[in-house]
Amino acid sequence: GIVLVAINPYEQLPIYEQDVIYAYSGQNMGDMDPHIFAVAEEAYKQMARDEKNQSIIVSGESGAGKTVSAKYAMRFFATVGGSASETNIEAKVLASSPIMEAIGNAKTTRNDNSSRFGKYIQIGFDKRYHIIGANMRTYLLEKSRVVFQAEDERNYHVFYQLCASANLPEFKDLGLSKCS
Predict the structure, then answer these.
(1) What is the pLDDT of residues 122-153, one digit of tens each?
(2) What DSSP string runs through 90-113?
(3) Got the DSSP string for 52-77?
(4) 67 is in an annotated binding site
(5) Predicted model pTM
(6) Which of 92, 142, 152, 168 has the fewest C-beta atoms lying within 10 Å of its C-beta?
(7) Residue 90: inside a domain
(8) Are the CB atoms for 89 and 83 separated by under 8 Å?
(9) Domain total in the chain
(10) Cα(175)–Cα(34) distance, rounded to whole angstroms?
(11) Looking at the domain assignment, is residue 24 inside a domain?
(12) DSSP β-ladder status, 131-140 and 117-125
């Protein structure tokens, strides 16, 4: 199948707006320029035509924008499925595990707030192809970061937050009073 490769342009571009979603909706793959929405439209069309589950693999280097690319694909599905204004599903899915995100982000040489998780997102559709729910599973990619960081990189943010808060009375029972 098709693999989407995320490449971060390092600036916001006006290529993910509502009018661009509508421009790609109903188009065949290859009729327009390569785009996240072209990949999403192809998966959506095949799901409706074949009545079979579809997958989009989003690949790219650290900091390339894989999570943002998944967000844009979900926005596309919500818009073409008629549920964007009703549910804002992509925001709900991506905000579904803020504790995991806080624990799993670290500073890397390419990104000050890079997620160190892989994500598997399942989106459920009804018979009219409207989004009816979603589920996100995360898995830790870098267990080694707990004990080792490359030069100019940091451990998970949560460790620094815990150390900065170690003097709070709530932390006495956690044994975090001697952080250095």
Answers:
(1) 888 888 888 888 887 877 777 666 677 788 88
(2) HHHHHTS-HHHHHHHEE--SS-TT
(3) -----EEE-STTS-HHHHHHHHHHHH
(4) yes
(5) 0.72
(6) 152
(7) yes
(8) yes
(9) 1
(10) 53
(11) yes
(12) antiparallel
